[in-house]
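User: Good morning. I'm curious how phosphoric acid mono(formamide)ester would be positioned relative to this chain. Could you predict the structure with it bound?
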Amino acid sequence: MTNKNLIDLEVMSTEQIDKIIKKTKKIMQSPADYRHACDGKILATLFYEPSTRTQMSFQTAMLKLGGRTIGFDNPMNSSVSKGESLKDTIAVISGYADIIAIRHPIEGTAMAASLYSEVPLINCGDGGHLHPTQTLTDIVTLSCEKGRLDNLKIGICGDLLNGRTVHSLIKTLSKYQNNSFVLISTKELCVPLYIIDILEKNGCKYEFSNSLAEAICDLDVLYMTRIQRERFKSAKEYEEQKNVFVLDREKLDKAKEDMIILHPLPRVNEITVDIDDDSRALYFKQAQYGMYGRMALILLLLQDEDFLIPSRSTVISEHRCSNPKCITQQESYLPNMSYEKLGMTMCDFCDKRIN
Ligand code: CP
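Assistant: Good morning! Here's the predicted structure, ligand included:
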């Protein structure tokens, strides 16, 4: 089965991902050619959680394509504040807009929303789970700046547990040949087990490190991330984790001359500001690549009939997902959808093991 919703890049083939990158590069070469590509079309941006880049780059992308935008960036100014369910909100908005971009603090919400949308729906971040269009941003940057998506040694540093951009990036880059990963974090903020399962399944080399200064020496890419304060149970736990890993001049001096530094942003203080002027620091350029990537994605979803996204084969499970951060715990009407992986039953919304 296929659909037009981008929930997780994992279900896409590398050929499909490469098609988005190719389209992005065409748009970057000649943006004026696309000025009227989406005339008359409307994008709805439904942001239940704060954003600068993702929301505004989607809005800018649609405006640059000649379309228009509607939406909210504070659900308390919408009927969500009166208790409207996700299902009802999506059913209504999909009658107004041609395409929906949604961000939500709860894992699995984009998948849940897609069940009730009549138009293509894009996951712009669902809790600490996934952020596929950030990964699109990251891989467009890698393709343009490193010239390849394979044979890379990628260091990923910071909050690997809660950082949804990390999960989407590893899932996607592990599809490409001969990539290896250095997972730099404290033991408390290590990547979830299901991400390790994916690395194993795809035969990728990976190692753990608790020293950025040691790990940086032979990396091709350093992907820094913020410690996600909003996902911690207490201020004390956050305080213990913040500032453990900071990229500064002394550490960067140990890196290769052609290593590139990426960061999904926002930065708090995990990269010192003096690094911004180093030619290897590409995080602001990365954000701009993201806007072009989102233009390509909107075009492919709205206009290319052959651009269909595969669906996982799911079943209705007897058991409900017990992950307290999963949308199935909040919206009682959702079915218990699951899929099988490596002999385990996984929740189709949040990807956590069900039993
Ligand atoms: N990278 C990213 O998702 O940034 P925003 O939270 O500002 O959208």
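The chain has eleven helices and 14 strands. The CA atoms of residues 222 and 261 lie 5 Å apart.
Let me know if you'd like a different ligand tried.
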